[in-house]
Amino acid sequence: MDKKRRPVIAGNWKMYKTTSEARNYAQSLVGLVGEISELDIVVCAPFTSLPVLKEELKDTIVHLGAQNMCWADEGAFTGEISPRMLLDVACTYVIIGHSERREHFRETDEDIARKVKAAIASGLKPILCVGENLSQRQEGKALAVVRAQLQHDLLELAADDLRKITIAYEPIWAIGTGKTASSKDAQEMCAAMRSTLSGISGSIAEKILILYGGSVKPDNIAELMAQPDIDGALVGGASLTAEGFAQLIKNACIA
Ligand code: PGA
């Protein structure tokens, strides 16, 4: 694999799996991908499974991530989980601003900007999700929407912190629908995002990882990975079985 940046393949389990299911999955996945060195593998699990995964993934190549966090380190925030708590259960990554959180839980760009800043300040690596919905794409507004999200969500960051962020371009119409953006469209958007990032951060933009997400599967990952501005994938449904996710990771390495 010949990539400018070291790729990341991150699984996003969403609200799936009990602790015993998580344990079995981790044991299988480690057995299947233990030898892979070409890219970084991340599993972003529900909060309840993180302690079990901390145990199972210790001293393995699989990194652990959460799917959300609060911007405060502690305090009177009933129902929230802080960056400190995520570090305590060995998370190194955290997904921020997933479209499902923006849509169902009304997360705003302002909330997301605060969370991104707090994640970096605490030493977690945020995976910031951006992406347009179907009507925005049909109206030709996809790039403008994504640009505005990037500008708002990264507003709070110092230029030097920008290199610590990973961005996932996830067109909402492609999430969980079986419809993937064509690799050409995905590449075009990721290249345009990189040029927006270079407007914000100059040459650091060349170092920032941009993942694609939205119905990524074992049979379309290689083509996506072959695109110069796509540095990996954020994978929902196809990360839910260890066998399927391992196959997807192996196919990513062949690209
Ligand atoms: P999907 O989800 O792979 O099931 O489309 C991707 C995501 O929401 O991160």
Provide a short characterization of the protein structure.
The protein is an alpha/beta fold and 255 residues long. It contains ten helices and eight strands.
What does this protein structure show overall?
With 255 residues, the protein is an alpha/beta fold. The protein has one domain (8-253): Aldolase class I (TIM Barrel, Alpha-Beta Barrel). The protein has helices spanning 19-33, 50-57, 83-88, 99-104, 109-122, 134-138, 142-153, 183-201, 221-225, 242-254; strands at residues 8-12, 40-44, 62-66, 93-96, 125-130, 166-169, 209-213, 232-235. An eight-stranded parallel beta barrel has the order 1-2-3-4-5-6-7-8, surrounded by five helices. Strand 1 (8-12), helix 1 and strand 2 form a beta-alpha-beta unit. Helix 1 (19-33) packs parallel to helix 10. The termini are close together. The model has no long low-confidence stretch (mean pLDDT 96). 2-phosphoglycolic acid is lined by residues 12, 170, 175-176, 213-216, 234-238.
